[in-house]
Amino acid sequence: MGSHPSETDVDEHPNNRIGSAPPRTRAWRCGKVEAEGFPVAQVSDYLERSDTVVWLDVCAPHHDDLQIVADELGLDPVAVEDAVSRHERAKLDRYDGYSFVNVYLPQLRDGVLSLYELSAFVTERALVTVRQENGLDIDELIARWDDSPVAEGLDAPKTWTGYLLYALLDLVVDRQLDAVQALDDEADEVESLVFDDTFPVKEVQRRSFRLRKNLGAVRRVSLPMREVLNTLLRRDLGIVAPPLVPYFQDVYDHTLRVGEWTDSLRELIANLLDTRLALQGNRMNEVMKKVTSWAAIIAVPTAVTGFYGQNVPYPGFSQHSGFVVSTIVMVVCSIGLYALFKFRDWL
């Protein structure tokens, strides 16, 4: 047995080395855990029992690695190719006897958004999850399966398989909500920067661009979830058992919330950028008013002395020391004005 109860011991079963981590397996019988950590080759043995549901998880497998899974469940080569390919669109494809689901879990850390791809094969009595990275906490998913009150009273195999899929999709949508919440908090910080007296233009531009980019990425992977849930909820297809329809409907409502939230945040960022431009224009006008006022004040004595051609003797007149002193005065005044303008962020 591996470090987790559901992990297959690859030392005892060397033929079950699939992907970058030991496969994880579990079997439920009448809603109760029957076995876990068994070899992948025994999946078909458990499925021979009409009252047993099986779950199999593999991480970062190659195409050849999934062949044993495909042989056990009779999976289509096209679906297997989609499961091992990167950057597939979030979708739900239906095949003869099973469905293929591809979704993404977003995670935001220090302003950097990561998207973790997750695929799943859903048959009448089996669920196979295929992860490209370790972005999904499998232990959290198992805890949801074991602790959720939704599982109470579910014992029919098809209903139990639908429950496993429900908990999986609910976890995915919760992660999408968490990501949007983090982006919302970051939008509040950008809003504070826009109205900051120091007005850090470059910081506002950098964070606004990053925020819009992250929002676009989250929206791109969350928007197709509506289509996935809509298809699952279609009564004529019969994919979801009637007792589970309200729970899938709840996940669908959360998906709508993710889409609406991202849309509102995109509008907020666009408004913040417009506000930043307006504030920057107003601030530039204020600076120009001050500089123009000082220029007008200095222009009056300059015009008077220039008109009358005044050239009065001053200390050091017609001497080398006077030239040096006047040069120093001009340099010091110029540097002083530059420092003042720079300090007030006029330059």
From TrEMBL:
SUPFAM superfamilies: CorA soluble domain-like, Magnesium transport protein CorA, transmembrane region. The keyword Hydrolase does not apply. It is found in: Cell membrane. InterPro entries: CorA_cytoplasmic_dom, CorA_TM1_TM2, MgTranspt_CorA/ZnTranspt_ZntB. The chain crosses the membrane at residues 291-309, 321-341. The keyword Transmembrane applies. Its main location: membrane. It is a multi-pass membrane protein. Residues 1-24 are annotated as: Disordered. Keywords: Cell membrane, Membrane, Transmembrane, Transmembrane helix, Transport. Belongs to the CorA metal ion transporter (MIT) (TC 1.A.35) family. This is Magnesium transporter CorA family protein.
